[in-house]
Amino acid sequence: MPDYPIYRDPPEQCRTPDAEERSLWGRTLERIADHCRARSLFVLHYCTGCGAIELPPSMTSRFDLERVGMQPMVTPRQADLLLITGYLSVKTLKRVILTYEQMQGPKYVMGFGSCTINGGMYWNSYATVKRLDQYLPVDMYIAGCMPRPEAIQQAFLQLMEKIDSGRAQNWKEYYRRYDHYLGEQQALFGEQFHTPTDVIGEARHYSLFGPETLGEHTAKLAKYDLYHPGQGAVDALEVKR
Amino acid sequence: MNAFDLLLYLALATLLPSLLAPKGRSGGMLTTLAYLLQVWLLFSLLPSVSQGGSVAACLEFAAFGHTIGWQLNGFGWFFALITAVSALIASAYATGGWERQCDHASRLHSLMALNVLAMYLLLGAADLISLFIGWELVSWAGFLLMAAPGGQSVQAALRYLIYALAGALALLTAIVLIEQSSGTIQLDALRGALASLPDGLSWVVLALVFVGFGVKLAMPPFHLWQAPAYGYADGPAAAFLGAISSRMGLFGLCLVLVQMVGLERLVGLALPFSFFDAQSLLAWAAAITLIVPTYIALTQNDARLLLAWHGIGQGGFMLLGLMLGNDLGTAGGLLHVLNHASYQAPLFLAVTAVVYRTGTADLDRLGGLIARMPWAYVTLLLGIIGLAGLPPMNGFVSKWLIYKGLLDAQMPLLFVAAVIGTLGTILSVYKLIHNIFLGQLRAEHREVTDAPWGMTGPMLLIAGFAFISGMLPGLGLYLVEPAAAALGLPMPSFDLSAIHAPNGALDMLVVVSALIGAIGFGALLFLNAGRSYRTQPLDNYAGGHFLTAQTRYQYSHHFYAGLLRVIGPWMRPWLVALEQGSGHFLDLASAASRGLYYHNGLRFLVFGTVVGLLWLLIVV
Fold first, then answer.
1. Model confidence over B159-196: pLDDT tens digits?
2. The model scores a pTM over 0.90
3. For A198, which of B535, B546, B547 is closest by C-beta distance?
4. Domain ranges for chain A
5. Staple B405 to which of A47, B217, B328, B453, CB 3.0 to 4.6 Å?
6. Which residues contact B44 (CB under 8 A, 6 or more apart)?
7. Residue A47: is its pLDDT beyond 80?
């Protein structure tokens, strides 16, 4: 057994829904928005490994992902879905976390191939990240080495259905349990790890603050003084990485 | 003694404060006050110069059997007013703070006052000799003002001087030809007098006048001198020169082409073996003046040079409008003189404010200053909207008039040329505002603040006028009316906000309301949504890289690379090479001829005698 707590999906029914969620108007709007979101997914590919080779067949004329409203997007600010297509090393995971935090909610993550699930054929490598969902909230995994385009299609359709029915809410967990995720990231990268994105400020701004947003790990961010305008923000980032 | 005499004396007296009090700010303040008085005097002259009237000065003398005098009419008054206001703004700006970084402030003030005086003497010329006196004074005063900062500006000013001397010789020849053929030098007597010249002589006079005044207007192929000469001048002087100085060429050109020759005669003057007549040839020369310098501006990496190149291009716009001869073209061409001054001055002043704070105008070394210098940004934004000719600024009105004038005159190809020029303007002004104010703030500019209010105030004031007179174009057209009347050109009917044409009117209040309404609607949506979250600038996507203040994540060098790849083959600097080549040839020739007589008295004597005899032989 590892000595860190293993993440499990939090029990949904225990959470007190906030006022906006309870209102009929808000729920109706959210329902319509979810319906639209599911049909216009902009995909940001993080092509770290061999999985990317299966994407061109999925995109091009035979399977043609655009007919279900999916298309590639080059920046995280406009993307909805982050696709991790293969193994992640300790170095590349940092970049994935940075990219994920820069995406605007609602945002979804898909782990692609066995490597993101358990390390795959790199299971005994010291430099490979074994489980993606320790560090980021993953909405869906596709098993296989590599998954065929048919499997990719199937996964996308399932994700769309999950979004449409309002069940793809994992991205909110990143804000509600930020302390937990940051703890995992710090355990891997060292205690000085931080990103330029103000996750805590965003959680507060969008009312996504949860009981685990702040904690012992986020307390270590205070010294970087990243998010107080004007002071030190730029200097703190000059730390060599 | 009338108000025009007072104006000339006051312009002379404006030289004094900065000469008498070279240290401290009192000289600059008194100079600014004097310009304010000049503006007031000019407005008091308005009733007497409107409806084609004129005011004669008591200054006159007799020479060569002619009476040489000065007399201000509506056309000269219009340019004089722009001169005085430009000098007022530039002087207030310099006094308000700029001169703290300048070791020759009093020289700047006195030279600018000298320029204003010279321009009044040119604009108030009553005959060809006083016109030439004014012209030479303007050239020399302009040279001194351009050369004031020293260094590279002296090189640029000397280059201007060579062009100006060549132009002056051409002008003098033209004056002699005009005097010989018509027997008079009085401008009033010369109205329409050149229309009866034979074709051959007309072409010679036109060519000489085109060279003489076209040099000042920097029309191709004489366009190389202007941008460095204006751009490298002191900031306030650059604003003054850019706003009005080269318009003196337009003034002279219109005086001869429109007033003496007449546009009907130009149309009748067909170029042998071609489809061109003199009017369309001049209009195409204006269109080339519009396009070529504008696309050269696109490639500039110095903000001041970029603006100065645009000044040349917009001069082409004015001449294009005035060559049409119809009411909309006239109103557009003359109004563009006023409008160009009202946005070019704040543009130069805003760039100067940036130089004042950051020490550079290099577009590759600036960026992100919007957060540090918001007022300079607002000024520059208003200025570039005017320069690009987009609503709601006044540049839109004058360009609309010229476009519509071109269509009314049934010149669709020139219309397309004007649109191509405007496209280049829009592209390069975006480069200007992007590379200075948008994008990434450089680490060395983190502590920069806006320029002092003494500088920001004047530039905002004139930019505000450019906005107001865009919303209410009647204000500008009211000033244009005496000029058009003095030239004998038609004007469209207008009221405070609208211009009426038989086939379509322009009401700027409607345009501005629609624009502000649309922007306001967007702003309401944005403000009411209230869900956006402001991130810090380094929280920016760079392919997964962590950005630091040292990382240049946004590149502004080699802007519009794709466009320049397409138009690059047409932009080979062959004219620059030709200019340099002829300059080197002249150097060589002068060195060789000097070698003939230098250090040797006898050889000098022989050389001088031979040259003198040869000259006598040719003349006799």
1. 999 999 999 999 999 999 999 998 888 998 998 888 88
2. no
3. B535
4. 17-168, 169-241
5. B328
6. B3
7. yes
pLDDT attached to residue B94 = 94
Domain count, chain B: 2
Cβ contact B77:B117 at 8 Å: no
> Which 3-state string (H, E, C) describes B111-125?
HHHHHHHHHHHHHCE
Residues A238 and A222: their CA atoms lie apart, in Å, by: 16
Q: ipTM of this model? A: 0.71
User: CA-CA distances (angstroms) from residue B297 to A157, A178, A182, B255, B431?
Assistant: 53, 51, 51, 29, 10
As a whole number of angstroms, the distance between CA B239 and CA B311 comes to: 11
- Average pLDDT of B501-525? 92
Q: What's the pLDDT at A236?
A: 40
The residues in A 39-68 lying below 8 A from B, measured between CB atoms, are: 46
Residue B155 CA, chain-centre distance (Å), reads 20
Instruction: Using a pLDDT cut of 90, give the percent of chain B over it.
Output: 67
pLDDT bin (cut points 50, 70, 90) of residue A10 is low
Domain of B456, in residue numbers: 286-506
Query: Could B536 and A198 be called an inter-chain contact, meaning their C-beta atoms sit closer than 8 Å?
Result: yes
A15: closest CA of chain B, how far (Å): 23
Query: Where residue B236 falls among pLDDT bands split at 50, 70, 90?
Result: very high
The sign of the dihedral angle between the CA atoms of B513, B514, B517, B518 is negative
Is the residue at B540 inside a domain?
A: no
Instruction: Please say which residue of B476, B506, B536 terminates a domain.
Output: B506
**Which of B389, B214, B223, B390 shows the shortest CA–CA distance to B305?**
B223
Listed residues B456, B480, B506: the one ending a domain: B506
> CATH for A17-168?
3.40.50.12280
Nearest Cα residue in chain A from B544: A95
Q: What are phi and psi of B72, to 5 degrees?
A: -95, 125
pLDDT for the residue B309: 95
User: Is B290:B313 a contact under the CB 8 Å cutoff?
Assistant: yes
Partners of B547 on chain A (C-beta within 8 Å) are 196, 237
Considering the domain boundaries, does residue B315 fall inside one? yes
Task: Compute CA distances A153 → A50, A57, A170, whole Å.
Answer: 18, 11, 21
Statement to judge: residues B457 and B596 lie in one domain: no
* Residues B121-146: tens digit of each pLDDT: 999 999 999 999 999 999 999 999 99
Query: In this complex, which of B446, B539, B550 lies closest to A196 when CB atoms are compared?
Result: B539
Query: pLDDT > 70: what percent of chain B?
Result: 100
In a domain, B580, yes or no: yes
Tokens representing A160 are 């769309």
B413-427 per-position pLDDT tens digit: 999 999 999 999 999
